[in-house]
Amino acid sequence: MHPDRTFHWEDRAAMRELVSALGFGALFAATPDGPRVAHVPIVWLGDETIALHVARGNGITRHLDGATALFVAQGPDGYVSPDWYGLGPNEVPTWNYLAVELEGTMRRMDEAGLIDQLDRLSATQEAQLAPKTPWTRDKMDTRLFAQMTRGIIGFRMEISGWRGTRKLGQHKPAAARIGAADGADAAGRRAIAHLMRAA
Q1: Percent of the chain with pLDDT over 90
Q2: What share of the chain has pLDDT > 70, as a percent?
Q3: What is the pLDDT confidence band of residue 1, given thresholds at 50, 70 and 90?
Q4: What's the whole-number average pLDDT of the chain?
Q5: pLDDT tens string 94-133
Q6: In a 3-state reduction of DSSP, which class is residue 75?
Q7: Model pLDDT, residue 101
């Protein structure tokens, strides 16, 4: 989380929406082997719980059940040239971005929980592909599905801490922020430019 309180993001509904829209992030945990990370797709099970799955062979997996972990979802981002502000020579380059950190306790799920997580995940992602007919596991051979799920382990995170950063140049005068947004847009960073304009 950014140390400048100007950029602290407290709107949990908006953070939850960003995490849902991304559907993917990095899960960090301390292990006896050192810090480890897994890159995982997630779904929400409730307002304070996410579910995910990790490859059984990932070095983090055997240390997760009962551990405190950190899930990080990174939204749009982009470099900001000081020239774009139009404020003179005494500005510095920076990076604007959105990020959400969720901290919580990890709990291993049983097979039914894992299958529910997989079904929710595919339903959420397939819905975004409309008008394509959604894929469901009913299209698979049940034995093959069971074989493949043996390679992953499902977990849920019971969230105890929310930290968000929304760094969009909101500490700059509006004209300078819009100038930077125009520069970011011209550089191909349209998503962060859009957010900067609306900040």
Answers
A1: 98
A2: 100
A3: confident
A4: 96
A5: 999 999 999 999 999 999 999 999 999 999 999 999 999 9
A6: strand
A7: 98
- Alpha carbons 93 and 81: distance in angstroms, whole number: 5
**Nearby residues of 59 by Cβ (< 8 Å), 6 or more positions away:** 31, 33, 36
Which CATH number belongs to the domain containing residue 84 in this structure? Answer: 2.30.110.10
CA pair distance 170, 177, nearest whole angstrom: 7
Q: What is the pTM of this model?
A: 0.94
Residue 41: asked if its preceding bond is cis (omega within 30°), the reply is: no
* Tokens linked to 148: 């493949």
User: Measured between alpha carbons, how far is 16 from 120 in angstroms, rounded to an integer?
Assistant: 16
Spatial contact of 91 and 70, defined as CB atoms under 8 Å apart:
no
Paired tokens of 92: 């510095």
Our count of domains for the chain comes to 1
Is 198 a domain residue? Answer: no
Within a domain: residue 168? yes
Q: Which domain holds residue 130?
A: 5-193
182 with 125: CB under 8 angstroms?
no
Instruction: Give CA–CA dist 94/41, Å, rounded.
Output: 29
